[in-house]
Every structure is written in C-alpha cells, then in structure tokens.
Request: fold
Amino acid sequence: MKTFKVLGLLLSYPKPEWLAHLDECEQLLMDEAFLPRKHLQRVLAFAAELKTADIYQLQEDYVSTFDRGRAHSLHLFEHIHGESRDRGQAMVNLASAYEDKGFFIDQAELPDYIPLFLEFLALCPADEAVNLLGEPIDIMATIAARLNKRNSSYSVLLDALLALSRVKPSAEKIQEALAQEQEDTSLDALDKEWEEAAAFAGPPGQADCGSCTAPADGLNIKITQ
Reply:
C-alpha cells in the first residue's frame, strides 16, 4: 500500500523535492482510502498546511521536534538500545531481514528509521504490511503520546499509523515511558547525548528499493520495549 510510503514521506525532513508533490500524495491517499476516514482527513489537513508553510520554518520545526533529544527520535532502536553495541547488531539484523524480502537500502541509511520502515511496508502485500506494523507499535505509540503532549502537528501521522495496526499498544508501557521522561532539549544536553552517536549514525540516504514478492511470517526483528 502506497499509503505507507506517503506517511513515511510526510515524516521525513522537509525538502522542496518532495514538498512539490504534495498534491499527488494527497490524491494517492484519497484513492487508496486505506486510512480510516477521520485519520485521512487529519493527514490531508497536515499536508495542506505544509503547502503554505515557509520551508525554513518547516525545517526548523522538524529539527526541533525530532533531532533535539531522544524522546521523539524516528529511529526505532534508539528507544530500546540507545547507543549501545546491541543497537548496532539489531540494525544489522533488521537490514538482513529487509534483504531477505528483496528490499535493499543505501549503506548510509539506518534501517530502523521509521520513514524507511514505512517505505518497506509499502512494498509488501497489505495484510503483511499491517501485521509487520504491529511489531514496533509500542514504540510508535509512545512517540505519538509524546508528540500529542507537545501539541505537535506531526502527531497526526503517528496516530494514523496506530489506527492501521491490528495490534493494540500497551497502555502500561506508554504510561511508564511518559512517567520516566525527563527530556532536556538544550544544546549542551544534545551534544552530550549524541557525543558517541557517530559509531552508528549516518545521513539519511535514498533507499534502493527492491520489492516484496511473497508474504512472510514476519521480520522477527523484536522491536519491543
């Protein structure tokens, strides 16, 4: 379902190259009608806001939301392993799972990046994609809760993903994560938080998309909190 790819694009760093195609993205979402109506309308409203917003303000807001602190990080394993060595192995395993299903990514890209994960789901049969979406649903629900708490417009995208999942997130885990949250978004804290990130981090790249040709039992990537 291309709906997953559009949602991933909307969760990506704002660039003129894809912002110029928002009309096409909106039409695709309406044509597929894969999202529940309420969430479809909210996502369309979010896309409409992007069209009229200043590109520099959009980019500043995106960095402020997703790159200053780990609370809203769009890298799934960041919420499980932080910068431990376990995260590196988990990403190797996930990239291998992608490749087993015919999806090959640029070496500069981190496989646990949610927009990339959604691009992968877009290549899978709908039922399989929805099932795989359920594997990291607790993490996505926690990010959604934090974005809603912050009144971020990006929350509608995570809420839309939650609406598509057949797996219901654990309310207990979400509340526990919110209770433990002590986010410091100061620049000094950011520098300290990411001082060892170079061991794994890399700039977002373009995925060399293959295809998912046959349903599978799952990725077995164990992305749970």
